[in-house]
Design brief:
The protein has 237 residues and is α/β, with parallel strands linked by helices. It has six helices and 16 strands. The two termini are 20 Å apart. Bound molecules: ribulose-5-phosphate.
């Protein structure tokens, strides 16, 4: 299986395992992630609505990308603040850029880390869907850590991150001059370290820097991961 097929397999398996195919589910509040693995999960949810096994779903999205996709598919979109959601989700499904054996994550490759973390941390159950390329021994050695920052604090934050041993690159827009502007109006510094760092400690330390909005390490949750492999199997851990 190629990478795209693995993403679809992981996403579909997660939905049909967590929301068991064949039974009817009603009224679930579901957080929906962003990216090329999360979207097939959204598509599968739409199919389950269509076949009548999923009723009255309430979705909370993590990006404009996912909001547009839900609207195209006719999935009703709410915010965490809506009374029907009341700040608490039953389930969140999302992709990841890296996942280690303890299910620590790096997220934010699609610059949606802020809402992704808010949704994840306010969900009773958190599922990660990924192809096998995302599985690593140590997070933060290959994929640069995204840090969402207030643009006006860029140099100050960068200096603090440099003192913590990180090299930082301001993420550039594609088909747009200048930096990526996140869905929340902020900018992204992609950070790398020469040697492995402690992701839990770094998540806390970086979050304390004034001007940092959110950090792409997700270490405070223990998601259930659905990782699809090229041989067509899905590892659930
Ligand atoms: C977006 C994310 C995505 O979940 C992450 O980048 C993985 O994306 P993909 O499934 O397209 O590889 O964190 O901010």
């Amino acid at each position: 299986m190629d990478q795209k097929e693995q993403k679809i397999l992981a996403a579909t398996t997660a939905v049909d395992t967590l929301i068991k195919d064949g039974k009817i589910f009603s009224g679930m509040k579901i957080g929906l992630g962003t990216g090329s693995t999360a979207l097939p999960a959204v598509k599968r949810l739409a199919e389950r609505i269509e076949d009548g096994t999923l009723k009255d779903i309430k979705a909370v999205v993590t990006s404009f990308q996912t909001e547009n996709y839900c609207k195209d598919l006719g999935i009703p979109v709410y915010t965490l603040n809506d009374r029907a959601i009341d700040g608490q989700l039953d389930l969140a499904i999302d992709g990841a850029d890296e996942i280690d054996p303890k299910n620590n994550l790096i997220k934010g490759g699609g610059a949606a880390l802020l809402l992704e973390k808010i949704v994840a941390y306010n969900s009773k159950f958190y599922a990660i869907v990924a192809d096998e390329s995302k599985s690593v021994a140590t997070v933060g050695t290959k994929f640069p850590l995204p840090v969402e920052i207030i643009g006006g604090a860029r140099r100050a934050v960068e200096k603090k991150l440099n003192e913590m041993g990180a090299k930082c690159v301001l993420r550039d827009g594609v088909r747009k001059c200048g930096p990526v502007i996140t869905d929340n109006g902020n900018q992204i510094l992609d950070c790398t370290w020469e040697d492995p760092v402690d992701p839990a400690k770094m998540e806390d330390e970086i979050a304390k820097i004034t001007g940092v909005v959110e950090v792409g390490f997700f270490t405070k949750l223990r998601p259930t991961a659905f990782i699809a492999h090229s041989d067509g199997t899905v590892e659930i851990r």
